[in-house]
Amino acid sequence: MRGDDGVGPWLAEWAEDRFSSDLTVRVITSQQWTPELAEEIANTHSVVFIDCSIESAPGDVQISVVAPTPAAPGLATHHIGASELLALTQELYDSLPRTALQLTIGAGSTDLGDDFSSAVKAALPEACGLLEQAVNRLLDKKQSG
Amino acid sequence: MSQTITIDPVTRLEGHGKITIQLNGQGEVEDAHFHVTQVRGFEKFSEGRPFYEMPALMARICGICPVSHLIASAKACEAIMSVRIPHTAAQLRRMLNLAQMVQSHSLSFFYLSSPDLLLGMESDPKTRHIFGVVGARPELGRAGIGLRRFGQHIIELLGNKRIHPGWVIPGGVTEPLAQAKRDEILAMMPEAYSNIKLALDWYKQIAETFRPEIEVFANFPSLYMGLINEDESVEFTDGALRLIDAQGSIVEDGINATRFSEVIGEAVEPYSYTKFAYYKPLGYPEGSYRVGPLARLNIVKTMGTPLADVELAAFKQLANGPVQSSFYYHHARLVDMLYGIEKIEQILSDPLILDKHVRATAGVNRLEGAGQAEAPRGTLHHHYKVDENGLITWANLVIATGQNNNAMNKGVLQAARHYVKNGKFTEGILNRVEAVVRTFDPCLSCSTHAYGQMPLALTLLSPDGEVVDRLTRS
Fold it and tell me: Closest approach of chain A CAs to the CA of B376, in angstroms?
């Protein structure tokens, strides 16, 4: 409904389909990241957060390591960032995934609508490729202990 | 010289609102209002839609309590269809509604209000949020998150989606409950009991330290209304409405959805987009009443489940008659949750719960229908009219927040008069005035949320617009 804001759920759906035969990959699609996700994160080997970014250039795909960061003042509880979610996970459950990554795609438009901007549409193959690579690497890492 | 204090937006609520406090020349509070500043228009844009689309459309009003809208809407549609839904469908809907109540109350109590209760009304606003609670009492944070996940996961299991499930339809539900899902829900019960016990024990330890707030947080006599069963036990999905007065005497009983508009009217005030519901025979504003957890516990004789009945008995000891202070909404919310968990377990032991007959079908058999349910925040009423083709020609929704509107405004005035002296205020005072509204857990038509990230400014203005004092939170 908010244009490129839907790219996270779209990629999650793609990943669910791509890794459907691997029972160790669990995809959670959520319009907002909320504190309830902490328990799931605490019990996982690795996590990849996927979201659109209004800070990056339209269509710019980035993947980076995320570390826990204490909550900022004026924090919202309907939506928190990946690093705050990791901090909450650590505080609540004294546990963290071995690897936490975040994949973002720069939003071109978040106006009302169910279509992606041309910049995001063009970036989807790159995003899917990076996501596939990242998940496969994490799976290899898990297998090798 | 009069002055105005504005709190805009009010934080840690579902939706956007603001508070204004009017001071007189002596710096005393003359008047105060809670304004709902957003307008939605669902009633208008549903006109022309087929009635059977209404539950799915109406659920989009809210991301926190879509299930209550689904159920009230489906019931209004079933009145149009003139059907009675199968027993199993009614039980499954009841369970879905209770699951939603547990998750919504968890959000209200743990995420929105426990920062005040645990860290204090005067604590640093930079850490007065759920993360602050987690830092101070991790087990309380875990309990809150656990209870919210409990409710959400049941909704997801039944409706295949955590938010806006489409499973409830006019005539029943789309699919029966699978045994594996029943077993999965049952397996979550021990943790849910443990979490709600922890919360209740903790709340009862700290409640009396808030005696000053209890005295002035919307603490006044009023009418109370909620759904109740024939055996005088609490009800969230069926039953009929009971209205009691401030002494606990029954004013009206057996108000079914059809009779609702005969006895309940809606007034309009120029400062808010939310209407003000009232009991027609007493007129407005004398007929204003409260709904939601406090009202539910005030109107019933029993919860109908053993552990919640013990808690209800303790709750009723708080007053000789109805409990009047809205601070006790917090307490009542926890009792509601305990009831919800017990009732879900009871429903799952119903021998017919896995029955495959979960839907009745029919077309338009009446041109008007109404349905009601208890949302977490209180009574929710949907009323539709259709043409011969089943297209909506008129719709009216009476939501819990509208029914608590007058009490919230009176409560804000009561607290502001108590705390604001000589035209001066502090952040802690600002927070207390907001906290009065938070006790009601109003849902200001909240399909989207951004609270907590918004700046909060409280400004004291002279009549000519000059800023006399300002307090901001970012």
Answer: 18
At B9 the pLDDT is 59
Of A39, A76, A92, the CB nearest to B451: A76
Interface predicted TM-score (ipTM) of this complex, two decimals: 0.76
Two tokens at B193? 């009991």
CA contacts within 13 A on the Cβ side of B397: 28
Residues of chain B in contact with residue A42, where contact means CB-CB under 8 angstroms, are none
Search chain A and give the residue with CA nearest B134.
Answer: A92
Could you tell me if B84 and B365 are in contact, meaning their C-beta atoms sit under 8 angstroms apart?
A: no
User: Contact B134/A92, CB-based, under 8 Å?
Assistant: yes
B135, B145, B474: residue with CB nearest A36? B145
Residue at token pair 């338009």: B364
C-alpha distance from A77 to closest chain B C-alpha (Å): 7
**Interchain contact, A92 vs B474, CB within 8 Å:** no
Cα distances (angstroms) measured from residue A26 to each of A15, A88, A139, B159, B192:
9, 20, 12, 20, 24
Chain-chain contact of B452 with A75 (C-beta, under 8 angstroms): yes
Asked if B136 reaches chain A (Cβ–Cβ under 8 Å), the answer is no
**What is the SS3 assignment for B433?**
helix
Q: Give me the average pLDDT of each 10-residue run along chain B (474 residues).
A: 66 65 84 75 89 91 84 97 98 97 95 92 85 90 94 92 81 96 98 98 96 97 98 97 98 97 92 88 97 98 98 97 98 98 98 98 97 96 97 94 93 93 83 90 53 40 55 48
How close B455 comes to chain A (CA, Å)? 8
Contacts of B33 (CB under 8 A, 6+ apart): B19, B20, B271, B272, B409, B412
Buried b (16+ CB within 10 A) or exposed e, B279-297: beeeebeebbbbbbbbbbb
Domain ranges of chain A: 3-143
Note whether B152 contacts A36, CB cutoff 8 Å: yes
Report, in this order, helix, strand and coil percent for chain B, each rounded to 5: 45, 20, 35
What architecture is the A3-143 domain classified under in CATH?
Answer: 3-Layer(aba) Sandwich (3.40)
Residue A131 tokens read as 């996501």
**DSSP 8-state class, residue B29:** E
Task: With H, G, I as helix, E, B as strand and everything else as coil, classify residue B342.
Answer: helix
Contact B376, B100 (CB under 8 A): yes
